[in-house]
Write a structure and sequence with these properties.
Two copies of one chain form a homodimer.
Chain A: H1 7-14, H2 18-25, H3 33-45, H4 52-59, E1 64-69, H5 75-90, E2 94-99, H6 104-115, E3 121-124, H7 128-133, H8 137-144, E4 149-152, E5 162-166, H9 168-181, E6 187-192, H10 197-213, E7 222-225, H11 235-248, E8 254-257, H12 260-272, E9 282-286, H13 290-294, E10 300-303, H14 306-322, E11 331-334, E12 337-339
Parallel strand pairs in A: 1-2, 1-3, 3-4, 4-5, 5-11, 6-7, 6-8, 8-9, 9-10
Antiparallel strand pairs in A: 10-12
Helix pairs in contact in A: 1-2, 2-3, 5-14, 9-10, 11-12
Chain B binds a DNA duplex through residues 6-8, 16-20, 22-23, 26, 28-32, 35, 50-51, 53-60, 117.
Chain lengths: 348, 348
DNA sequence: TTTCAACACGCAAACGTTTTCGAGACCTTT
DNA sequence: AAAGGTCTCGAAAACGTTTGCGTGTTGAAA
């Protein structure tokens, strides 16, 4: 049960001063070879490692990145975390994670606690609660205190800081254009309500695709789902609304869902109603997760490269942390990739 | 760009000493009401919050829990993290996350770095690399330094520390017994190689169910999959091995997979070969994740309650951190739950 | 007026580092 | 032998807290 060794203990044991030990371990030329050897040997014996907390206090930097995400049981976010953690580690940083659970209050609380010295900077995706409230004072305050923030995924245009986002508009536009190119004339959209930025942009992309391809778009084919439908057990009402739409509009021959669950639910409902996928109906989802891969038939989807998002975010944050220059803020827009699988008949 | 306020700044500004400010903010009776009011008001104005790092150094505790898991893009592990984070937060702790990526070296490295003062204790699930190496020196050393560890999921019997595990044996025994009860005579098992403890136990449960129910078990119906099959693109060889088994043994009328992907792959292969689920073939998987819920037909599976595991682990760790008593180590065994869905015909 | 408590506050140490600066010991040079 | 120069090391400050103890001021009691 021996506790961690400290400089003082080594110094006392060897009859030298603390500073001598410190210098010896850092290989300073100030200390004689003989002493250095003796000290390093003894330190190795005791498994000495400098105390991070003391270092953080002295250097006024923790080498830790704070990450706040709405939830972690979620393929996309855990992929981003994976990217963040891996790259941060390569750069010698640790990652402190906090969950907002989509709640404004928890987001504020977490930012407050972490900002009190625990971390050097934030990477975060704002909660839906925050987006609803439109209250960003906690973010402003943090930035004003000189702590850098990198936002990812969920955008807040009015906040000036580094951002890394996905080109939701282009991604969904291309997906819908691909559907049109594959012969779909009546494409249903299953989307969220507009206050979530990414849902809004994906809807815009859907609309734009129609405009550009000169296809009429029927507003009745847009299903706006309340977010509550995302909670596990609320799949039933979602599916019944989808079924309703199919009954009203049997002409539907394509589905674009702004996330995996919506697309998959659309596909399942259609299958149960007798539609053949992809012959009668083609389906594309946004976010390429484990569900798309393992669905039957497997789901064509728009891949977001979550790990790259994390990687980019870390890179932007560390650049700002380690350079004194307060350059202009950047917004990195990452392109998506359309992964084709069995739920569509794209020629390519 | 004002930096964080410190006690010293407040003291200087108000012409009092640092200790007066500190005591006033803590509501000490030593300080007069008048001064206390003045100080708290000014501190509020400056958004003063005590520096966590300084507190950690002084108190020799960081109020941070280190979590090391093999990977995070994984439904089970992210559920555990969710449980850990939520409960730790309630208790006033933060969570530092590190990923081993199933590598022994990364696990050792992460433990070493985090153990140097950054955290108060560990919650971890050991990597496959560590299990292969059978080298646990890093864990022993950490424990010897007086830093508590709670292991979860992946067991290491020879290490004495607190553990929280799932009753894999019972869970799979009951699942297989349910299959037998529902009329299955020839149940295939898709499992991992034996060095992973949980895979081994689930296999044992499968065997025991046969023994107890007096059903003959055919060793040819056990498919041992190399772990590489878990990497995304290696589903194809997995599926072809499953198909092979079906061709050789058309009598198969039940499948038990030790994880979601195995069970789902088994079901998909069977569906493609014309089997009707659950009429011709019933399927049960271990780990109740998003795949099971959204599969078509949805998959009956053994639910592990990942969040509870995280919760229990935090509870054990904090109990050890906050009580001086070094009581005996405990192993908490959590029971599983058989969640019935469309892939089986269990009467219950 | 002296004495003594109560009150209000400041000093200083401690947590474990790093780093600047100064100082003693020894050696070389004149 | 004195002066100067190298080596080798130690003292102390600093990072931001908390806290035990000392101290000065006040008021009241003797």
């Amino acid at each position: 049960m021996k506790k961690k060794a400290t400089l003082k203990e080594i110094a006392n044991e060897l009859g030298v001063s603390i500073s001598t030990v410190s210098k010896a371990l850092k290989g300073s030329t100030e200390i004689s070879e003989e002493t250095t050897e003796k000290i390093t040997a003894f330190a190795k014996l005791l498994h000495y490692r400098p105390n991070n907390i003391a270092l953080s206090l002295k250097n006024r930097r923790t080498k830790t990145i704070g990450v706040i995400i709405p939830e972690i049981v979620h393929h996309f976010f855990s992929e981003v975390i994976q990217g963040i953690e891996t790259f941060a580690n390569e750069k010698g940083y640790n990652v402190l994670i906090a969950l907002s659970n989509e709640s404004f209050d928890k987001e504020v609380f977490n930012i407050d606690t972490l900002a009190s010295g625990s971390i050097d900077g934030f990477i975060l995706s704002v909660s839906k609660g925050t987006l609803k409230n439109q209250d960003f004072h906690h973010l402003y305050e943090t930035i004003n205190q000189g702590m850098p923030i990198v936002l990812f995924d969920r955008q807040i245009p009015e906040i000036s800081c580094d951002k890394v986002i996905v080109d939701d508009f282009q991604g969904s536009r291309r997906a819908v254009e691909a559907l049109i190119g594959a012969g779909c004339k009546h494409i249903a959209l299953i989307t969220t309500e507009d206050y979530v930025d990414v849902g809004f942009k994906r809807t815009q992309g859907y609309l734009d695709a129609h405009t550009r391809q000169g296809i009429a778009q029927n507003p009745d084919l847009i299903l706006r789902v309340n977010d509550q439908f995302f909670s596990e057990d609320a799949l039933v009402p979602l599916q019944s609304r989808i079924k309703e739409m199919f009954l009203l509009h049997p002409e539907i021959d394509g589905i674009f869902g702004v996330n995996e669950v919506y697309a998959l639910s659309g596909m399942k409902v259609a299958q149960r109603m007798g539609y053949k996928i992809p012959d009668d109906l083609q389906v594309v989802g946004f976010t390429d997760g484990v569900l798309s891969k393992h669905a039957y038939p497997s789901l064509t989807s728009v891949k977001q490269h979550g790990q790259n998002i994390g990687r980019e975010a870390v890179q932007m944050l560390i650049r700002r942390l380690e350079s004194e220059s307060d350059g202009p803020f950047e917004t990195k827009v990452l392109q998506t990739e359309l992964v084709q699988r069995e739920s569509t008949r794209f020629e390519n």
